[in-house]
Design a protein that fits this description.
This protein is an alpha/beta fold. The chain is 25% helix and 27% strand. 41% of the residues are buried. The structure holds D-[(amino)carbonyl]phenylalanine.
């Protein structure tokens, strides 16, 4: 019996700093309804998609920082999205800033949840690889203070049984690290979904700015192919509060081929019919991890955080 999941990538255009969550949710609802009309089972929204990308500003007032975070999910602003999803029978991936008290301490994470067609939250992921910096850097045209406002995720890279397959999530910078895909690949993941806010201008290495779009697809296509999984990458795109964010949201097959790609820099839904049995074929026949991997030689990957030169 074939296992078909129709997946949408709901790219968002810029979210203004003063654009309230209710207004943003109305934009998300529009794309959820478009997806339902096109037969989507699941829709992938971007990273931190309830507000503007606030890590681009330096803040010192904890109350101001916390104003960008959600303390419960669903909440008053997002309940309409959960209700409409249940009514239409469409699940979704949603990225947001999570403030939570766990183990007697308050934590701040860059989080994504997976919501089934029932409207139930069936999976949660917290961004592991935080890019950027923690202190104000005056030489930058805009800040990228994810290391200031978030803690690294504490959930690892879990996978979830939903939508008839094995689903995995990551967020933005995670997609640039091969370990992200492989840890989920080792769990038999079939669909990896992610959202991103990627400025075209990358201050530490501006010489690579002209390759921003190429690098975006390169890492996701490689991750898909090397693990035999569909990868859906959804951008917050366009010039947001003066910051140029790349778009080109896409749906990638387990073969590494791009099945669908956004053409605009605004709110745009793309849809693809994903046959999960293609994953089985690639994972079993093309790769066959159990028969071909040699983990005895991979120790360096987890033995240290940084490079350990054999010559020193
Ligand atoms: N943004 C960027 C990303 O990884 C970045 C940060 C940009 C890293 C360009 C490297 C190059 O896509 C987030 N939010 O992680």
């Amino acid at each position: 019996m074939t296992r078909i999941v129709t997946i949408g990538s709901a790219q968002m255009g810029p979210i203004a700093k003063d654009e309230g969550r209710q207004a943003v949710v109305q934009r998300l609802l529009t794309m959820l309804r478009q997806g339902a009309e096109q037969g989507c089972d699941l829709i992938v929204f971007p990273e931190l998609t309830l507000t503007t990308f606030f890590p681009r500003w330096y803040m010192t007032d904890p109350a101001e920082v916390d104003s960008w975070f959600e303390t419960e999910m669903p909440n008053a602003a997002t309940q309409p999205l959960f209700d409409e999803a249940r009514k239409l029978g469409v699940g979704f991936y949603l990225g947001y800033a999570e403030k939570v008290t766990e183990g007697g301490a308050v934590h701040h994470y860059n989080t994504a949840i997976l919501v089934e067609k029932s409207g139930e939250i069936v999976g949660k992921y917290r961004k592991t690889h935080l890019p950027g910096h923690a202190e104000f850097e005056p030489e930058r045209p805009f800040q990228h203070l994810e290391k200031r406002y978030f803690e690294p995720g504490n959930l690892g890279f879990p996978v979830f049984q939903a939508f008839g397959g094995v689903m995995g999530m990551c967020i933005c910078n995670d997609r640039r690290w091969p370990e992200t895909y492989r840890v989920m690949g080792m769990q038999g993941v079939e669909v990896i979904m992610l959202g991103y806010n990627t400025p075209r201008y990358f201050a530490p290495a501006p010489g690579l700015n002209h390759l921003a779009d190429f690098h975006n697809h390169l890492v996701m296509q490689a991750g898909a192919y090397q693990n035999g999984a569909f990868v859906i990458g959804t951008a917050k795109a366009g010039v947001e509060e003066g910051c140029d964010l790349i778009g080109e949201s896409c749906i990638i097959a387990p073969t590494g081929e791009i099945m669908a790609q956004c053409k605009t820099m605004g709110d745009e839904l793309i849809v693809a019919t994903c046959d999960l049995d293609i994953c089985t074929d690639i994972q079993k026949n093309r790769w066959n991890f159990a028969g071909n991997r040699e983990p005895a030689y991979y120790g360096a990957i987890t033995a240290s955080k940084g490079v350990v030169s054999p010559f020193e």
